[in-house]
Amino acid sequence: KYSPLPSSPSSSRASSSSSSSSSLPATPRRSPRALQRHSSLLSQYSSLLESYTEGEIRQLISALVERYSQAMNSGSHELPLFPRAGSRRKRARARHKPCALKELEVSVSELGLGYESDETVLFRYCSGTCEAAIRSYDLSLKSMRSRRKIKKEKVRARPCCRPLAYDDDVSFLDAYNRYYTVNELSAKECGCV
């Protein structure tokens, strides 16, 4: 137990009533330095909370309760006060997803090939890691690079998730009614290369 803060009126009443009782054992007290640090932290938080309206405090509490219930429903037994920790876990899991084919519906203009068209296409792409596909070549290449045997060449010391085959050609009309065909636009099969 610690001695109550001097700034709290209710705690000063409690300390005066407890000091009159001689049957209670003496409690260890914090050093003045720690007490000052604790007091300034409390005053910072109390001044912060005083700046909120009652509605904002209710909104804050309901958000914390919602996070707590989501954590309990997801099987986690800790209060997710810091959402970045969850996103770090998600990124860590995403790093280990195997190489796979994904798809996205986009307009032709969004492809970045210089065509102006409102037509949409199904763009398939490769995403994921190739940690399981690391071969002796990759390990040896990494070792040679770390020993500076290979200095200036741009070499990749790990396999990369890339298309192994492409879908059929994609044809579309641009905004000026000109007909175009683009080949090797969308992935058909992915693998570690």
CATH homologous superfamily classification of the domain at 96-133 and 159-192 = Cystine-knot cytokines
End-to-end distance, in Å?
Answer: 63 Å
Oligomer: single chain
Q: What is the structural class?
A: alpha+beta
Widest β-sheet, arrangement of strands: 1-2
In DSSP terms (H or I, runs of 4 or more residues), the helix count works out at 5
Low confidence ranges: 8-22
Question: What is the number of E strands?
Answer: 6
The second-level CATH architecture of the domain at 96-133 and 159-192 is Ribbon
Shape: extended
Report the top-level CATH class of the domain at 96-133 and 159-192.
Mainly Beta
Largest sheet: 2 strands, antiparallel
Helix share bin: 25-40%
CATH fold title of the domain at 96-133 and 159-192? Cystine Knot Cytokines, subunit B
The average pLDDT is: 76
- Helix-strand pattern: HHHHEEHEEEE
Radius of gyration, in angstroms, nearest whole number: 31 Å
Walk me through what this model shows.
- One of its GO terms (molecular function) is glial cell-derived neurotrophic factor receptor binding.
- Belongs to the TGF-beta family. GDNF subfamily.
- It comes from Anhinga rufa.
- There is one protein chain.
- With 193 residues, the chain is of the alpha+beta class.
- The protein has a domain at 96-133 and 159-192: Cystine Knot Cytokines, subunit B, CATH 2.10.90.10.
- Helices cover 39% and strands 19% of the residues.
- The chain contains five helices and six strands; from the N terminus they run H-H-H-H-E-E-H-E-E-E-E.
- The strands form three sheets. The protein has a two-stranded antiparallel ribbon. The chain has a two-stranded antiparallel ribbon with strand order 3-6. Strands 4-5 form a two-stranded antiparallel ribbon.
- The longest helix has 20 residues, at 54-73.
- The model is unreliable at 8-22 (pLDDT under 50).
